[in-house]
Amino acid sequence: MAEQQVSWLDQNEKLLPLLEKPHLKGEEWYVIDHRWLKQWKDYIGANDVPGGQETNYPGTINNENIIDKTLDPLPDYGHFVLHNISENVNYSYVPKEVWTTLKNVYGYHQMHPIKREVVEMGDSQTPTIELHLIHVRLTRIEDRNNLDIAKDKYYSCKVTIDTVCQDTIKLFDCKGVKNYRIWSKYKKWTLLKGKYSLDQVGLKDGEILYLETTKSSSFDCQKQPDILAFQNGTEEEPMDYCEDQEMDNYDEMSVVSPCGLSNMGNTCFMNSALQCLVSVGTLTHYFVSNKWKQDLNKSNPLGMRGEVAKAYADLVKEMHSSAKQMHSVLPRQFKIAVSRFAPQFSGWAQHDSQELLAFLLDGLHEDLNRIKDKPYVETREADGRPEDKVARDSWKDYTKRNDSVVVDTFHGQLKSTLVCPKCSHVSVTFDPFCYLSLPLPQIRNRCITIILLGKSPISEPTELHVKVEKQGRILNLCESVAQAANDRLPKDSKERINHENLIVVEVHSGHISKIYNPGDAVSMIMDKDYIRVFELAAVERGVPRDKYKLIGVYERVPAANSYHKSFKTVGNPFVLAVPIEINYDTLLDMILVRMKRYIKHSDKIEKFEEVNKLNGESEDASEPFALRLVNMYGNAQVAEMTLKTPLKQNENVQYVALDWESDENRKFFLDPHEERYVKKEDAPANLRVKDLQLNDCLELFTSEEKLSESDPWYCPKCKKHQQATKKLDLWSLPDILVVHLKRFSYCRWWRDKIDSLVYFPTKDLNLKKYVLDPSIDEEDAIYDLLAVSNHFGGMGGGHYTAFSRRGTKWVNLDDSCVSRIAEESVVNRSAYVLFYERRNPKKRTLHCN
Ligand SMILES: [Zn+2]
C-alpha cells in the first residue's frame, strides 16, 4: 500500500506547515484534487478528527476530476486544468516538497503531475500561481482568410511577444525572413511590441495573432497590411473570445461607450462600482465636458483637496476618449487617489463595491461642493409647522451647506418618525440620503430533495421534497422526511417510519462524502448535494444503540487499464446498521439482503456460498466477490477481511467493499439499472420558496421597528433614553436612485451572505406608493434600471461585475471584458447595488426654492 513509510504524525508535523507558505516568484507548486487533499488532512489528523484512522486513508492521489482531458499534457507543465473549477473547492495547491512526499507515500494515478510556476501578475506584481496558460492562435497575415491553418499554442503570461514571433516563424517555416512583427486584430489592428510580455500587452485567452514578415531589413513604415480591405471584406470574421462582436451600434449608446477597466489584482469591486457610476449619463457628461472644474473645491476640510474628483474626472475622460481605440483602461491613478484618502481601500484585498460607492459619492460631493463657506445652521423641531413645510425647510437648510452635482443627482429625503413609548412624544425629522440600504426579508424555510431508502429490502427508493427550517438541524430534516413518507401511508401501516431510525448521507459521484449526525446544521447541505436517507433496520430488531455500528457499503469491480489489480466503485453506496460483533458470513448475508431488490439469480449466489463454506478460507477462483475493508471514499483498501473478525470495535463507522471478481460477474448477478436513481422532478410549487420582490424589501425598510435596548433614542420630552418605535419613509426621490441590497449580514457571532434572488424590475419601477411628498406625481415616481453591481461568491472574496444599460442595450462589464447581455439576464441572484434612473428627470423643485 505505502511505497514509503512516513507516519501520519510525521506528515502532519512536517508537511502541514508548508501548505501555509507564501507563494514566491519562481517557485514550483503542484495542483491536487481538493477532495483528496481534504481526505488526507483528515487522515493525518489536521481537521479536528483523530489522525491515523483507517477509514480516512486517502488512497492513491487522483486528479482525474480536475484535468482537462481535451488537451494533451505538456512536458514540465503536465495536464491542463479545467477552467470552470475553483480553488479549495475542486483543487488546491501544494508546494513541491509536499507534493514529492505525498507522491512517494500514496502514489499518483496519472502519468503527469500538474506543475505550476509562481509568477508576478497584474499591475501590483503580486506573486501568483499561474494555473492556466494563455491560449494563442498563431497565423501569418497572408493566411488570415484561412484560419484553419492557425496553430494553437499555450504560453505563460510572462513570455514576450518576440518569443511568440519566433515560434510562429518556426511553426510556419518562414524562410529568408529578415524582419517580422505581429498584429492584434482584437486591439483594432495594433502592432504588439516585441519586448513586452503577454500580460503587459493584455493578451486575451484564445486571441489570434497575425505574423507579418519581410525579406528586407525594415517594414514600410507603420502601414497596415491591407487591413482595411480585410476589415471590410466579406469573409467571415475570425472568432474572438469576448461576445462583444455584436457591439456594432456604438453610436446609439448615449454619452459613454462601454470601455472595460483592467483588474489590478482584486480590484473588481472598484471596477464594478465605477462602471455603475459611469453609466449615469448626466454625471459623466458633467465630467467629460469639464463643468466639474468650476465646482472644484480644494479647500473643503471635509473634502479630499479635490484630488478624488480630479482622479475620477481623468478616468472618466480616458474611458470616454479611448473607447474607440481601446477596450479597457487601467484605473491606477484613481486607485492611488482613493487609497490616499481612504486607506481601508488600499492594499490588494477584495473590498465591498457598495462601501467604495458610498465613499466615492461622499468624496465627490465634498470635492465638488459649491458652498465654499458653510454657514452654521441650527436644527429645528417641527413646532407645529405643516409637514411639507418642515420637509422643505430642512432641505433648504441642508442645501445651504451642501450643493453639488452629487446632491443634484443622487440625494433624496427620508422622513423618520420616532414615538416615545412613555410620553407618546412624536419626533419627525427629514434627512437627506444618498442611497437606500434595503434589508432582505429572511426566508425561513428551504426545500431539500432527498432519496429515501426504506428498511424493507424490496421497497423502491422514493424521491421526496421536504421543507425544513434553514436554521434547523439534521434531526429536523429526519422528522420532515419521516412525516412526508408517512403521509403517503395508511394510518395503521406497519411501514410507518420513526425519524430516529433515519440516517442522512451525502453521496457525491458514487462516493459517500458525509454521514450526518442528528445535531448537524441543515445549512451544511447545499442545494446541489445528492442526499440519500436510509432507514436502518437493525434498530427495530431490538439491538440497543451501543450494540450496533454503521457501515458504509460500496460495490466495486476491477479497474480497467491498471498495472496492479485495483478496484473502482460502481453503483450507489449504501449504509447499514449491523451488530458490533458480527462475523464475515452474517455481514455478507446482511449486505446481500439489502441488495435483494436488484439481485438476480440469488439461488446461484447461495450455491457459491455453499462452495465457499466447503472450501473454508482457501482461495477459490469461482468466488464471485469478496468483502474488503476500505476507506470512506471506497477508493483504497485499508485491510483484508478475514472470516472471523471482520470489523474493528473502535471506529464509529466502517466502510466495506463488496468487490466483484469481474464486471461480467456483477452484470450476471445484478440488474444494472436498478440502483441508479437520479433526481426526476423539481420540487412542487407549494414547497418552492417564493422569490423576493424589491417591494418586499421596501416594505421591510419602511416598516415600524422598536429600537433595541443597546440603541435607544433620547426623548427630548422625558429627557431620558427610551426604546422608541421608529419608522422610516421615503419623502422625496432623486433622479438617480441607488439601492443597496443588504446581502451581507454582520451579526455578533457570524457574518453571512444572503444569496436569495430578489426580483427587481428593469423597467417601470413605480415608487409612488412609498413616497409621502404630496407634490410628487405618479409620473415622477417611475424609474428604469440603469446599472447593477453584481457580487458573485461568498463573504470576504468573490468577484464583482457590473451590468450597464447603454441606450436600450445591456452590456456586461467584467473588468476589461465587455460583452452584450440580454435584458432577461440582468435580474440575477448576484445583484447587489441597483442604479435606477427617473424616467422624467428634473431639477427638484425643492432645490430651486
Ligand atoms: Zn418621552
Automatic annotation (TrEMBL):
Organism of this sequence: Dimorphilus gyrociliatus
Protein name (database record): Ubiquitin carboxyl-terminal hydrolase
Domain DUSP per the UniProt entry, residue ranges: 1-119
One Pfam family linked to the record: DUSP
Keywords: Hydrolase, Protease, Thiol protease, Ubl conjugation pathway
Broad EC category: hydrolase
PROSITE patterns, per the entry: DUSP (PS51283), USP_1 (PS00972), USP_2 (PS00973), USP_3 (PS50235)
GO biological process, one term: proteolysis
Protein family: Belongs to the peptidase C19 family.
